[in-house]
Structures are given as C-alpha cells and as structure tokens.
Design goal:
Surface presentation of antigens (SPOA), Chemotaxis protein chec, alpha+beta
Length: about 350
C-alpha cells in the first residue's frame, strides 16, 4: 500500500483536538430530552349549596346519634311497662337539613311535641306519627293498640291522655342527655299542623334523628328535630375527643370518696368450706345427731373461703377470743380452683 494512502488514515494531534471540540460543541447545541409531563391536573369539584350549609361535622352527628340511641332504649322500657304490650324503639338514621325542608317533609296532620330544654336556648320537636300515637292511646284506654293513619278531631280527654303520655318521655330524655349536659325538658305545646309551627328560620340548619317505633302490631316513625341554636352552646362536647376525655378523666374526689365508702359498707356473705364428700341418698337420710363421716380433705390442707359463693381465698381454721375463726393465707386466682370433687 502506498505511503500517501497510509498517511491519509492517520490523524494528527491537531485534527484529534478539533474533532473532540466539534463533538462537544454539537452536544451542547442539542436540547436535552425531558420526560413527558402531563399538563392536565385532575380537580375534584364538589357542589356546595349555601342554602344547605352543613354546620355539623360527621363526628358531632354520631355523638347525637349515640345520645338518642340511649333515649330509644329508655323509651322502649317506658312504653313496654306503661302500655303493657310489646314496644321497641330504635334509631334508623340521622342527618342535617334546613328547617324549611324538614317542615315540608312532615305530613299535614301529625303530632308535633314542642319541647323546651333549659338551660339551653331554643326548642326541639319530637314528631310522632298518628298511627303510633293512636296505638299508644288505644292501649291506655284498654284496647289492643290499633293505630290510625289520619288525625281526626280529638276530644279534650284524648288530648289530655296523649299529653300525659308524651310528658312521661321527658325523664328518659333528661337521662339520655346527662352525659353531655344537664337539661330540664318541658313540654310547652302539641301542634298538629306543621305550617303553624315556626321554631327557627327556614334556612336554619337542624339535626333530624329518625327512630322506628313498634307498639304492639303497629309500626311508625318518631322523629327528633334539634336546631343549631339549641346545640351551639354545647357543640364542643359533641366530639369523639370529648367523649374519650370524659370517659378517662378522673372523677371528682368527693364522688370517689362516696363510692369507696359505699363499697366499704356493702355486706357480703363469707363462707368457709371445711371439705367435701360423697354420700348416697340412703346414707344421707340415715344421718343422725352425733354421726361422723369422713371428708375428702386432709386435715393439714387449707380451707376454701368463698365470697358471695365464689372461691376467693384459702385459709386455716382457728380460735380468736373463744370464737371460731379463719385466717386468710392466700388469694385464689381465676382458674386455680379445681371444679372436680
């Protein structure tokens, strides 16, 4: 191969430097590749109706539901005892709506018990459907508890009977609220037309707790309406944190002292078991005064001391001031007592 051809295949140092410079320059001019970035951001949009402002959290609604679940249990006991028939009340739902919407959902003729609950301001409503109210009144009058779907013209005696019956529900209501606030409920009036009842403004947020009621063979609904103005002073107590703190906080010292003193003064039956044995019915019937039979316990074994019939201690017999006595040796832990003879 000629020398000039070989020389063409060899680069000088200057040419190598120029080539490297040109490659570096070319890389700088190129735009770096970027990973594709999505410019579309998903946005979650919720429709908010200012006419239906939610002023209660779900936590607060759950707290109110717990209160009226307790109220429903107390009503079940009250109606069962007073009406002497099967009765069952249970909470089925709870939520918040404007007062105007709640009023429009009520039938034209129903029993609306307006209850004042001092020291809280405002009034609450206990709505009782006519069939349930008539079933209760029928039981009070000695009937089978038949309900009616329509309210007829009530006599003064019938209205007085219903008033007395609804008046009895105030004590359970006070007891159900005791864990949150001390209230003194008073039944101010009974209205049968919701259009004539203006407790708060139509746009005011109210909590409605619906309860399913069974009186005998009659089914119906009892609704509780609580305006925001009533709950506003105690709104901080309607939280899970308050329930947890109130459940774990230490009771008042005087209450604890009274409880301890009551426990100390409680009388319990204490029995000392000397031993056990087997006897046939024939031998048992043949026992006479002065007869001796052998127990299965050894003389040096400790005795079992029972508190209210439950084995709690082991002890040994003895005398104290010329009286039979037992000395406590150990406490019996659960599962230590042998159930077999």
């Amino acid at each position: 191969m000629p020398d000039d051809v070989l020389s063409q295949g060899v680069l000088s140092q200057t040419e190598i430097d120029d080539l490297i410079s040109s490659l570096a320059t070319g890389n700088d001019n190129e735009e770096p590749k970027q990973a594709p970035v999505s410019t579309e951001l998903e946005k979650i949009v919720k429709v908010y109706d200012f006419k239906r402002a939610l002023r209660f959290s779900k936590d607060q609604i759950r707290s109110l539901t717990r209160i009226y679940e307790n109220f429903a249990r107390l009503l079940t006991t009250l109606f069962s005892a007073h009406l002497r028939t099967y009765a069952h009340i249970s909470v089925v739902s709870s939520g918040q709506v404007p007062y105007g919407e709640y009023i429009r959902s009520i039938d034209s003729m129903t029993f609306l018990n307006v209850i004042e609950i001092p020291p809280l301001k405002g009034r609450m409503i206990m709505e009782v459907q006519p069939d349930i109210a008539y079933a209760m009144m029928d039981r009070v009058l000695g009937g089978k508890g038949t309900g009616m779907n329509k309210i007829s013209l009530l006599t003064d005696i019938e209205m007085k009977l219903l008033t007395n019956l609804f008046q009895k529900t105030l004590d359970p209501l006070q007891e159900a609220w005791a864990s949150i606030s001390h209230i003194e409920p008073e039944l101010s009036e009974i209205e049968v037309n919701p259009q004539f009842l203006q407790v708060v403004s139509p746009n005011e947020t109210v909590v409605v707790v619906s309860m399913h009621a069974v009186i005998g063979d009659t089914n119906g609904t009892i609704n509780i309406m609580l305006p925001h103005v009533v709950l506003e002073p105690i709104i901080s107590k309607l939280s899970a944190q308050y329930w947890m703190e109130s459940g774990s906080k230490e009771k008042k010292p005087e209450a604890l002292d009274a409880l301890k003193q009551s426990i100390k003064e409680t009388n319990v039956e204490v029995d000392v078991e000397l031993g056990k044995t087997y006897l046939t019915i024939r031998d048992f019937l043949a026992l006479n005064k002065g007869d001796v039979f052998q127990l299965r316990n050894r003389i040096d074994e400790p005795l079992t001391v029972k508190i209210a019939g439950v084995p709690k201690f082991t002890g040994q017999p003895g005398m104290k001031h010329n009286h039979l006595a037992v000395q406590i040796l150990n406490m019996i832990n659960e599962g230590d007592e042998d159930d077999e003879w």
